Amino acid sequence: MATAKTILANAKRYLGMPYVWGGDSKAEGGFDCSGYVYNVLRDSGYPIGRSTSQGYSSLGRKVARDQKKQGDLLYFGSSTSKITHIAIYAGNGKMYESIGSSKNKKRNPGKGVTLSAVARRSDLVLVKRIITTGTSQSTDTASGKTGNSADTGWRGNTAYYMENAAVKEWQAAMNKGFDTKELSVDGKFGRGSQNFARNHLLWRGQKHNCITAIQWLRKTLHDKYGFSKLSETGAWDSYLGTCVGVFQKNRGLKADQIVGLETTWWLLNGKKR
Predict the structure, then answer these.
(1) Are the C-beta atoms of 52 and 73 separated by less than 8 Å?
(2) Interval 100-153: pLDDT, tens
(3) Long-range contacts: 120-126, Cβ < 8 Å, 24+?
(4) Which long-range contacts (CB under 8 A, 24 or more apart) does 215-219 make?
(5) pLDDT at 222 over 90
(6) Does residue 172 register a pLDDT over 90?
(7) Do 115 and 9 share a domain, yes or no?
């Protein structure tokens, strides 16, 4: 499990790495801000899929901005629904971040990974804690679920826990789609499955070869929820994104076309509304 110490050690290791828009590997010449966080958390043993700064706002639990601790994730933008930058809190008013802009391509990299003052930006809108010690609280503003009673061992957040055949099918599809054996294919949507759904997002910008995972999504929307014209290909096209957005809107969720924990929960529980 990721700790503040390992996260900060890995964050420091990339100091000086150039900024490349959309980059998330040395082969691409550098990282953008979300690509940097992706690498640091993966290196620290925190299972996470590639996403955007906005996409990563679903990680962890929200904490007050004046209560931030080392290893917390800092989100910047005009609002929590319009996040444009992400960084890692280093303590003492400092943060690790990758600095640049959309103009910084591989042949014209930006400043890159640096240790900066949080105060250099005035648009901090959200702080999330991904490190858990003892019990944890998982908050989802779309559904109103809060897990104060939540993290009860292997069941994870009891507000999300369920057991059914759909969960088992999802677990098998995610393991194959993300080329991992992380999920126990037991039909139980407990802590491990909840964390996986929270950190392995399905969305239009997913770079991982998630063909089987996307096939599962298309089949579920078609067979269980009546969305037509969804063949079982492994492609994320604009129509699939529209279907996901409609599914989310009909359940009072944020229609961001990103399948994380909350949307996965709704897909698996079989409820129409």
Answers:
(1) no
(2) 988 888 778 888 999 999 999 999 999 999 885 433 333 333 333 433 334 457
(3) 121/76, 121/85, 123/76, 123/77, 123/78, 124/65, 124/74, 124/75, 124/76, 125/75, 125/76, 125/77, 125/78, 125/79, 125/80, 125/83, 126/57, 126/62, 126/65, 126/74, 126/75, 126/80, 126/83
(4) 215/173, 215/177, 216/169, 216/170, 216/173, 216/174, 216/177, 217/244, 217/259, 217/267
(5) yes
(6) yes
(7) yes
Residue 228, judged by CB atoms within 10 A of its CB (0-12, 13-18, 19+), counts as: exposed
Nearest-5° Cα angle at 6, 67 to 180: 110
Pairing of β 61-63 and β 124-129: antiparallel
If asked whether residues 12 and 81 sit together in one domain, one would say yes
Last residue of a domain, one of 72, 95, 129: 129
Both ends of the chain: CA-CA distance in Å? 35
Count of structural domains within the chain: 2
Q: What is the CATH number of the domain that holds 119?
A: 3.90.1720.10
Instruction: Classify burial at 249, counting beta carbons within 10 Å of its beta carbon; exposed 0-12, middle 13-18, buried 19 or more.
Output: exposed
* Tens-digit pLDDT profile for residues 14-55: 999 999 999 888 778 899 999 999 989 888 877 677 888 998
Kindly compute the dihedral angle of the four CA atoms of residues 110, 114, 118, 119, in this order, to the nearest 10 degrees: -60
**CA 44 vs CA 117, 172, 256: distances in Å:** 23, 25, 28
